[in-house]
Amino acid sequence: MSSSSENKNSLQSVVDGIQTQEKNPFQSDPVKGYVPNPNLKSLRTYQGDMQEHIEVKKETVATIAIAEQKKKIEHNEPTYTEPKIRTSQTSRSGLFMVIGIICLAIGGTISGAIYFLQTEGTSTTNAPIEKTLISFTEKKETTLPTIDTSSLAAALLQEQSSFKSEANKVLYTTFLHNGTEIKPVDLFRLIAQDAGDALKRNVSEAMFGIYSYDTNEIFFVIHPEDFGIVYSGMLDWESTLGGNLSSFFPLLGQHLATNPSVFTDETYKNKDVRVIRNDSGKTVLLYGFIDKNTLVITVNEKIFEAILNRYIQAKLAR
């Protein structure tokens, strides 16, 4: 009787153990000597969560994974993405793109520099450049009260005395009357009042100015249409030329007060010139052709040479 009871108790203990394991298949036997701390809460582990979902909520691993992904998307958390495989073709495409960007940047820089230089050059070259018979360093407009030789001479003598500049500079003078510019060629014809009509008709351009050398001196530069006619006309004009120009050149006026207007031939800087010298041998008037298109009238050889050099330099620079 007692043996049968013992067997029954043993069998019952085995059944109880199996039932306990079925209720908690993931629970391991407690370690001998371990006493749980009643103040510590049980740790919630991933294994416990999985167990709860599988046993209580009857969910599968797949449905759990889908739920986790959905939760990350709702909370804007990063989700797993398939890593991209960088191929050699992708590398070449990226390299070509970088090279293209660099080339565009260099090209843009060069284009900008060229545009800037062209803009600067255009602003300079588009500025109106006045064409004159010789180059000048300064220009001044003067108003004449009346259009006559005495007013013109007085204005030029005033500019001669007031022109403050270093040597080898040219003041180009133009003249106005009642706000209207007077053409230089018309003023020259006014000066050449005793010259022949043929000479006057064959002067197409004229330039008046002051040349700064060791002293400031007045000059006239004339452009003849026909060299032969103007050359012959100048010779014919010589008898009264000095008198017509004496108001512009004070030393000439002083000389002619007691002497006739007599010219002599001379050669200066390989150019044939005609000169008037005073009693002390100083040149007080000179005229000569630089070339067949340019006639210079001034006070002495120094100014003639300075104008000649400036004219030659301008031609060589063209």
Task: Describe it.
The protein is an alpha+beta fold. Among the domains are: 42 residues, no CATH class; 180 residues, no CATH class. Helix content is 48%, strand content 20%. It has 10 helices and 9 strands. Strands 1, 2, 3, 4, 5, 6, 7, 8 and 9 form a 9-stranded mixed sheet that branches. A hairpin with a 3-residue loop joins strand 4 and strand 5. The longest helix has 38 residues. The protein is elongated. The relative contact order is 0.07.
Pick out its properties.
single chain, 318 residues, alpha+beta, nine-stranded mixed sheet, 10 helices, 9 strands, 20% strand, elongated
**Structural classification:** alpha+beta
Radius of gyration: 56 Å
How many extended strands? 9
Tell me what portion of residues adopts beta-strand conformation: 15-25%
How far apart the termini lie comes to 144 Å
Gross morphology is elongated
Mean pLDDT: 78
Q: Which segments are poorly predicted (pLDDT under 50) over 5 or more consecutive residues?
A: 40-46, 119-128
SSE pattern: HHHHEHEEHHEEHHEEEEH
Kindly state the percentage of residues in helix.
40-55%
